[in-house]
Amino acid sequence: MPVLRSFRIAVAGLLALGLSACGINSVPTAEENAKARWADVQSAYQRRADLVPNLVATVRAAAQSETQILTNVTEARARATGITVTTDDLSDPAEFQRFQQAQNQLTQALGQLRTVVENYPQLQSQGRFADLMVSLESSENRIDTARTRYNDAVQEYNTEIRTFPSVIGAKIIHGAEPMQAFTAEPSAQTAPDVDFGNMGAPGIAPGAAPANDNSTQAPAAAAN
Q1: Which three-class secondary structure state does DSSP give residue 125?
Q2: Is there a cis peptide before residue 202, judged by omega within 30 degrees of 0?
Q3: What is the pLDDT of residues 177-211, one digit of tens each?
Q4: For the segment 107-118, what is each residue's pLDDT rounded down to a tens digit?
Q5: Rounded to an integer, what distance in angstroms lies between the CA atom of residue 170 and that of residue 22?
Q6: Is 203 left (phi over 0), alpha (psi -120 to 50) or beta?
Q7: 120-124, long-range: CB < 8 A, 24+ apart
Q8: SS3 182
Q9: Whole-model pTM?
Q10: Taking the domains of the chain in order of start, what are their residue ranges?
């Protein structure tokens, strides 16, 4: 009996080891890590989006002629916050691409806004504006870090589900699909092209006050 019992224990141990080697635990572990890193990406992007209304309202007060640029930023923010990618969508290339494109459009719009405000020394001297720009820069750095960590986690997960022996459990037990990673846009390497001769809205001369527009007014407190 002791021999039979020892044999059963040994068989059970081998089965457990075999199942573990087939990705029973490693695949979901890698998946949960990637999902956690995705939550960090969403948090970083949301932090940037929360800063935009205050930033636009501050710039509007000092640079009233730049209506079109401010409108572009506001509309880009609306598109970026209007697309939500859940963890279930991380394996959907089309949905992930929509999200990335919308965020890139906001990045480009903010780049144009940065170029514009260089022409307004009185705006740059405001403490409130300076604080917002520091917060925006911090948010951009957080986004870059979060995206890098997410891409690393996705690479680890995708490698896990494609390599033997984990691929067995990934396909048969988990039904795992590769997750999408962020890719660099070609335009990200090019500085924004701003036409200073056409930045005002139609019918508004540079320096003239635009029509009343409360669509981008923000709360009194600046985002941290």
Answers
A1: coil
A2: no
A3: 999 999 986 554 444 443 433 333 333 333 333 33
A4: 999 999 999 888
A5: 8
A6: left
A7: 120/62, 120/63, 122/62, 123/58, 123/59, 123/62, 123/63
A8: coil
A9: 0.74
A10: 22-179
